[in-house]
């Protein structure tokens, strides 16, 4: 039986597998573990375009992604993250496009 996917398990996997220095994960499914969004900061992204960064993330989370319905990620290098944090006052996090209050609309438990 597959383990349930949680914010904590995704965060731990990303931190370990991508040597991420900062990871934010949000369950947008209302707690049922089927839709996640994330902000991932890793030196592994340096010199890679957006597509290559997302491919790295998808490969790192291959087993987890196979068990969930929706996944989105914002991938930044440490330098990009620090610049954006300075520009936004640290109020930028995972992408929440298509959500209402951080949850996918139409989802019920």
Explain what this protein looks like in three dimensions.
- By secondary structure, this protein is α+β, with helices and mostly antiparallel strands.
- Helix content is 34%, strand content 22%.
- The chain is built from 4 helices and 5 strands.
- It has a 3-stranded mixed beta sheet.
- Strand 1 and strand 2 (35-41) form a beta hairpin.
- The longest helix has 11 residues, at 7-17.
- The protein starts with 6 loop residues before the first helix and ends in a 5-residue tail after the last strand.
- The mean pLDDT is 86.
- This is BolA-like protein.
- Residues 99-109 have a biased composition (Gly residues).
Structural class: alpha+beta
- What percent of residues are in strands? 15-25%
Number of strands: 5
N- to C-terminal distance: 21 Å
Oligomer: single chain
Helix content: 25-40%
Biggest β-sheet strands, sense, barrel: 3 strands, mixed
Strand-and-helix sequence, N→C?
A: HEEHHEHEE
- The Rg value, from CA coordinates, equals 14 Å
Average pLDDT, rounded to a whole number, is 86
Largest sheet, order of strands side by side? Answer: 1-2-3
Question: How many helical stretches?
Answer: 4
Globally, the shape reads globular
Query: Which regions contain 5 or more consecutive residues with pLDDT less than 50?
Result: none
């Amino acid at each position: 039986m597959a383990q349930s996917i949680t914010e904590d398990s995704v965060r731990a996997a990303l931190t370990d597998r991508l040597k991420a220095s900062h990871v934010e994960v949000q369950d947008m499914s209302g707690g049922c573990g089927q839709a996640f969004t994330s902000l991932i900061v890793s030196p592994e992204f340096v010199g890679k375009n957006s597509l290559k960064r997302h491919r790295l993330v998808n490969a790192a989370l291959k087993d987890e992604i196979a068990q969930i319905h929706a996944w989105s990620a914002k991938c930044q290098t440490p330098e990009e993250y620090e610049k954006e944090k300075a520009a936004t006052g640290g109020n930028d996090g995972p992408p929440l496009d298509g959500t209402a209050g951080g949850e996918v609309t139409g989802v019920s438990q």
